[in-house]
Amino acid sequence: MIKRVFLIVLDSLGVGELPDAYKFHDEGSNTLRAIRTSKFFVGDNLKKLGMFNIDGVEGGIENPTGVYARLSEKSAGKDTTVGHWEIAGLVSENPLPTFPDGFPKEVIDEFEKQTGSNQNQNTRQNRNTKQNQNQNQQQNQNQQNQQQNKNQQNNQR
User: Fold this and answer.
1) Under a CB-based contact definition with an 8 Å cutoff, are residues 119 and 111 in contact?
2) How many CA atoms within 13 Å lie on the side-chain side of 111?
3) In this structure, are residues 45 and 61 in contact, taking their beta carbons and an 8 Å threshold?
4) How far apart, in Å, are the Cα atoms of 84 and each of 51, 74, 90?
5) Is the pLDDT of residue 132 over 70?
6) What is the model's pLDDT at position 78?
7) Phi-psi category of 12—alpha, beta or left, where left has phi over 0 and alpha has psi -120 to 50?
8) pTM for this one?
9) Partner of 75 for a Cys bridge, out of 56, 92, 137, 151, CB 3.0 to 4.6 A?
10) Taking a C-beta distance cutoff of 8 angstroms, is the pair 13, 36 a contact?
11) What is the C-alpha end-to-end distance of the chain, expressed in Å?
């Protein structure tokens, strides 16, 4: 009997599209394969563990030190939360909403209302307005000083 398991969840590190990819505009997706081709990616430990042995990733090794698997959710949806729930044993039959074109205005408005972030935005706008006013006053003062200097120079001639 196994007494201990170290489960590492690499959120958003997909290894190929799922059968329902068309529902989420994810056809052809394979994040691990895509980042593996970058000259900046270093995945030596993932390779040792066997992550590159998964079908569709390429670059695997014989006798990896870890156990690897490619899984797909039973739950409806594609988000991290549903995936974590499923790891804990809860299969969700209803997907959570997704927003491929950004959050609707009413969601943002309610979020700002609940978090007070719209007040922060107003505070920033007020601060920026005051800074602009101060800059304009300073520019006006500089222009007046320059004009006075010119007038004094002309009077001295």
Assistant:
1) no
2) 7
3) no
4) 20, 12, 9
5) no
6) 75
7) left
8) 0.53
9) 92
10) no
11) 103
